[in-house]
Amino acid sequence: MSEQQAEVTTDYEPRIVAFLCKWCSSAGSDLAGVSRIQYPSNATPITVPCSGSVSPMYILSALNKGADGVLVSGCHIGDCHYIEGNFLARRKIHLVKELLGFVGVEPDRFRMSWVSAAEGAKYSQVIKDFVEDLRPLGPQKKLKADRS
Amino acid sequence: MINIQDMRDTARDLLTKNEVRAVIGYRRSSSGMNAEPVVITTPEQADELVWDPTCFHNLSLYLVEDRKFLAHTRNNPGRPIAIVAKGCDARAIVVLMQEHYFKREEVYIIGMSCEGSGVLVERKLAANGIQATNASFDGDDYVFTTAQGEKRLPAREIMADRCLECRIPYPREHNVVLGEDKTGRELAEPFAALKRFEERDAGERWIFWERQFDRCIRCFACRSVCPMCYCEECVVDSISFPVNAQTTAEEKANRVRWIERSAVRSENITYHLTRAMHLAGRCIDCNECERVCPVNIPLRLLNNKMEREAREQFGYEPGASIGAPALVASFLDNDPEKFIR
Asked: Residues 238-267, chain B: which have Cβ within 8 Å of A?
């Protein structure tokens, strides 16, 4: 309903689901907040213990439940609190990204980034870029469930 | 060239000496040309076993079923179960052992080399206008018995695509093996269909998959036939949510549902993408899912995509060795990360 209206009035605001790792990216987004860096409010952060704990199911499910874009963010390689979690995430996420692109979902709808706890500015930039890239794509309808 | 009698003798021997409790193999089905899976438990039944181009079933599925049955009955038979396995089936068994689904000594693998050929596809056979009652191997040819007498055709013309593309038509993991090792044969370029498909742009690809997934009726035949889909509880239909008289409407409404069971496009595609992800690095391309699909969804494309990604980006070969780690539980320092910002 609200999406149909959004299309007509063209003030479409993309909705992003951001899976942020507890140790780095979540703290990074906190830093962006306490530093009062201005960035779009389109992202809904979900704190997860580690980027390696993000199951492909989370990503598909987020798109299925109506997210326009999904972001997975974790610690830089080598900085993982669990030593190798982000190495595993990197491999898994690569497969999800390839698979989504393969069936024809726009590659810009899904993104991964490394944001450390000190990179509040980078986090805000990642969100800004993501929102800008999502705007021309319009609402995500391919995987979204029709629950009307 | 495999002598069928050798396979029967091996099975009979194993059962006579009581070394195994049963042999999973193929027998002639009660109608038509195709073979069907059979479990034999007595030496006399060994003569029922057959080996021909219609042995397309991946019998490792029945090892999984057997394992589940033993766990359910809390039975420890002590003796292994024997299985007739092609190259691809043996790789499936290796993947299952890699995941500690059962131990090596619990299975006795009677390996069958496909040598220069493989299994046939009924659709290709029908396109050649052959209505056969029996099929058999003869070198690199298939020989069919039809109402008009014997017909001989080169195997390449009616062989399954996956067999044409197969590089290792030989069960490396085996207790006994029949036939020659023709590893490295090149009958066709691997991933040919995938390459053709990827030449289309994203929009066309989506239109193609949209049409495919709209047809899915969610019969779950692909899941039932897959030896890798052995989870007790599938993410698609949760069975561990107890509903009793005290369960409130709110609890029912708030239970976690990753995917709905309704056969609508968004749920179908999420189901099939999830399945493709779960099979990444585990699928050994037996293509049973595509064969059993009642609406002919080209599932092999999805599985091949994941297989090629694993091979080219991570150098991972599914079912190569029992000790190898799983694809998504291992990593290399130089895994691709260009896509990460």
From this structure: 258-260, 264, 266-267
Query: B92 lies in which domain range?
Result: 1-190
Contact list in A for residue B340 (CB cut-off 8 A) is 90, 112-114
Number of structural domains (chain B) is: 2
Cα(B259)–Cα(B280) distance, integer angstroms: 19
What domains sit in chain A, N to C, each tagged with a CATH number?
Answer: 15-137 (3.40.50.960)
Long-range contacts (CB closer than 8 Å, 24 or more residues apart) made by B140-147: B140/B116, B142/B53, B142/B117, B144/B33
Relative to beta strand B132-138, strand B141-146 is antiparallel
The predicted complex's ipTM stands at: 0.91
Q: Which of residues 121-180 of B touch A (CB under 8 A)?
A: none
pLDDT at residue A50, as a whole number: 96
Q: Cβ contact (<8 Å) for B273 and A99?
A: yes
pLDDT digits (tens, 9 = 90+) for B249-269: 998 888 878 888 889 999 999
Q: Report which of B36, B41, B34, B83 is spatially closest to residue B62, judged by C-alpha positions.
A: B83
Question: Are B111 and B228 members of one domain?
Answer: no
Residue B327 lies in a domain: no
Q: Is the pLDDT of residue A59 over 70?
A: yes
The side-by-side arrangement of strands in the sheet containing A69-74 is A43-48, A16-21, A69-74, A110-114
Q: Which pLDDT band, with edges at 50, 70 and 90, does A1 fall under?
A: very low
Q: Is A21 exposed, middle or buried (0-12, 13-18, 19+ CB in 10 A)?
A: buried
Same domain, B140 and B288: no
Whether A132 contacts chain B with CB within 8 A? no
